[in-house]
Amino acid sequence: MLKPEEKITDAELEVMQALWAAEAPMTLAQIKAALPQRNGDTTKTLLRRLCHKGAVSSEKREVYYYHPIVAQDDLGCYRTRKLIDKLYAGSAKAMVASLVEHEQLQSKDVEELREMFEDLWKKEGNE
Q1: Mean of pLDDT values over 74-82
Q2: What is the rounded average pLDDT of the residues 17-31?
Q3: Which residues share a beta bridge with 68?
Q4: For 99, which of 6, 91, 104, 111 could close a Cys bridge (C-beta 3.0–4.6 Å)?
Q5: 58 DSSP β-pair partners
Q6: Half-sphere exposure in the Cβ direction for 103 (13 Å, CA)
């Protein structure tokens, strides 16, 4: 059975991003206001689909309040893994090499990555 993050479409992702940004449950009206580029009926349909998929839950108060069940990090990890699998035959190293080769990393990015790699190296018991 697929996890909720495996079923979220790009259109539904816009609704999820609005919910994550809010950091608190939102009403349908608040979600519609956060997505002015979307038709209100479309937003309602996307929200209903997300609830059905288990990515969003609702709570009835004076009106329904919606909040994400799927964490942004979980969806990011899932989508990153799918991208690496699809474009780089499962090799994260090949993806990073492509970013370097095509000059997609700034000096600041390289320094931050160097620090992350050094921390990982130390965690694995290499000094």
Answers
A1: 93
A2: 96
A3: 56
A4: 104
A5: 66
A6: 0
- Nearest-angstrom CA–CA distance, 10 and 88: 21
Q: Three-state DSSP class for 67?
A: strand
What are the tens digits of pLDDT across the range 28-55?
Answer: 999 999 999 999 899 999 999 999 999 9
Angstrom distance (rounded) from CA 72 to CA 126:
31
Give me the helices (H) in 55-123, please.
Answer: 72-88, 92-101, 107-123
Q: Is 72 helix (H, G, I), strand (E, B) or coil?
A: helix
What's the pLDDT tens digit per position in 104-118?
A: 989 999 999 999 999
Phi and psi of 89, rounded to 5°?
Answer: 50, 35
Residues sharing a CB contact under 8 Å with residue 44, sequence separation 6 or more, in sequence order: 28, 32
Beta-sheet strand order (sheet of 56-60): 26-27, 64-68, 56-60
